[in-house]
Specification:
homodimer, 131 residues, mainly alpha, Arc Repressor Mutant, subunit A, two-stranded antiparallel sheet, 55% helix, binds iron/sulfur cluster, DNA-binding
Chain lengths: 131, 131
DNA sequence: ATATTATAGATATTAAGAGTCTTTAATATC
DNA sequence: GATATTAAAGACTCTTAATATCTATAATAT
């Protein structure tokens, strides 16, 4: 079980956007070059982030992407959910009432996700900047 | 990101084997039928569990599988590792020194895995039995 | 009007998971 | 020893999801 590369790209992009001066947009060209990616592929990922309301996009000349003005305190989990969807790690098609196996798996997953929810991009970005 | 079906099958099989009387083997035929699976496919999963030392197999008539006599206190994590390998959820090919993104992802993963390590099959099996 | 940039859709490629079939080796029973 | 039973291993197919590219369209600044 592995997170997709798309999640990796999304996290890097978000941290980078966090470090931009207020109100300035960055184009997909630059974001892709930074990570050695094809712009069209990264574009698909950025569209997901946009639809999730984590970033804003402006088309046209001098356009690009910037962190959403309305959505503050973006967590790692927000980014992952935007890219991968909110599916559970463990899913059983049967769902017996009070299933003990599911209970364990779900609890473990919660432990992971609560950690990812508590970590904010802005904190990571600031730490990275101060290095 | 989802755990494979194989992990699901393995967990069910292990719980079932936990509930068998001491020293009695169960054949793949029965284990597969129980879960509505093809025996040959389940067989591949069981071989992984055997190689990981979680169960023991005996070929031939009256053979089959039983919980390992040497490996006690088998955890959920043991089963998952046996089936899926011990790969990390998040892997970056670059590995910058002291990477902050990796730090967060790894910590979250640890939180999940420590939970899975603390949950033992025997406890789940006994609870399920007493229902 | 023109250049720039995001969005969307179609399509191709790759990798992994899921599953089957067949052969071989080991064991118990008679 | 012969036969039936069962696990292990290898080759193979099928399906799905991730990865990626290409093209056309829509929106925006200059
Ligand atoms: S016991 Fe739980 S995991 Fe297993 S089939 Fe029932 S609901 Fe699904
Ligand atoms: S910052 Fe971390 S995750 Fe990103 S490329 Fe460097 S090591 Fe990899």
């Amino acid at each position: 079980m592995r997170y997709s590369n798309a999640t990796n790209y999304a996290l890097h992009t978000m941290v980078h956007l966090m470090l931009q001066p207020e109100r300035s947009s960055v184009g997909v060209q630059e974001l892709a070059q930074m990570q050695d990616l094809s712009p069209t592929y990264l574009s698909k990922i950025l569209t997901k982030l946009t639809k999730a309301g984590l970033i804003e996009s402006t088309p046209g000349a001098k356009g690009g992407y910037k962190i959403s003005r309305t959505k503050h305190n973006i967590s790692f989990l927000d980014v992952i959910y935007a890219v991968e969807g909110e599916t559970n790690f463990f899913e059983c098609s049967i769902h017996h009432e009070g299933c003990l196996i599911e209970n364990v798996m779900t609890q473990a997953e919660e432990n992971m996700k609560s950690e990812l929810k508590s970590k904010l991009l802005i904190d990571i970005a600031k730490k990275a900047e101060s290095k």
